[in-house]
Amino acid sequence: MKPALPARLLQTLAPWRNAPAWHIAFSGGLDSTVLLHLLATLAKSETLPPLNAIHVHHGLQAVADAWPIHCQSVCDSLGVPLRVMRVQVQSGASLERAAREARYQAFTEVTGVGEVVLTGQHRDDQAETLLFRLLRGAGVRGLAAMPAHRPLAGGYLARPLLDVSRAELEAYASDHQLKWIDDPSNADPRFSRNYLRHRVIPTLTERWPQAVSNLARTAEHLSEAQALLGELACMDLHAADQPSAFPWLVLPSLDLGPLRELSDARQRNALRHWLTPLTRLPDSDHWASWFSLRDAKADAQPLWRLADGELHRCGERIWWLPSTWSDFSDASVSWSLPQNPLVLPGNGRLEFIGKAPDGPLEVRYRRGGEMLEVPGRGRRDLKRLLNESGLPGFVRGRLPLLYQGEQLLGVPSLAGLWPVASDSWQLHWMPQTCDQGLS
Questions:
Q1: Within 10 A of 380 (CB to CB), how many other CB atoms are there?
Q2: What confidence tens digit (pLDDT) does each residue in 249-288 have?
């Protein structure tokens, strides 16, 4: 016989008993109402982190305008503070997905370091998720369905009711005479999950009564398999995650050589793991672009466009460039000293080290044919110098060039790739970093 629901909930939440706060995602529906009531009741006899509820108002239905009032009434009766957050749902092909993204963005905003957002998804939801993703042709990562917990902002998101059936939640709500909101959109079969919930799963359970619990258990098995694939990916990426020749270029990158030694399946597995925090992953049909990038000639500098950026290959190294990398203007910028460093629009900062040349200065970008005075080598073509340096091609058009009138005075020293043009000053460039929006 299973332990009582409160005891199971406490056991599930044991890893976070010392968290600074627990935020309960409170829609006002059955699941979140039971979760809130359970935690508020347990807090009377157990030492729990401070509780508060978060109600996200999507504004998608007129009837939803009354829901915050209901949620406030429930929270007042339980002595739990409530925060109502109004969000804008972006229009697009999937209203369900857009609403979910807006909701989780709101959760991200309220989650402090070490804090936990608790959501009320249950075992039936897990079964629906597995079936939905199976029908979409998802791989192991997708079929692992909803994780019991995952990082969120500086804290965590946890789903402590994933091993609890909807029937158990309904029984608890009935025993405690709880009232909840029935969202009318949950009955609309035009939404895929509703179609599965009301038409497909009842048919399955009529033939296989344990279908829901078996599907949820399958998701657990696949979650374990995904964890093992993650461990394998970390092992494979360890060899490829070597420092580049350009430590000042703060972009995610990998050495291609160690990846080449892996089977195609292990390459895809390692790259999925590496790309997951950077971009939405491509579907199976688009992985051919990875092999085209990998197998291109060394001087081809191919790229692979993904949802949130591009993967570039330069020589035997691959580099991730997020979409924000393209937010860059190559217009000239006047530099009036003593302003130092100079902020370059979308391109980091440029700084003088030493005594700057007299007179008006200007920062420009490459147009072709630039010549640079190199100590000990005379005047040299900048393009040839860049080729000698091995500087990735995607950086070269962003390299700031210092001019006085029509004379090219110098380029950034770039960690000693070539000698600087003057003994009295150096020019240091600090490109955009990940903290400035590159990840």
A1: 15
A2: 889 999 999 999 999 999 999 999 999 999 988 887 788 8
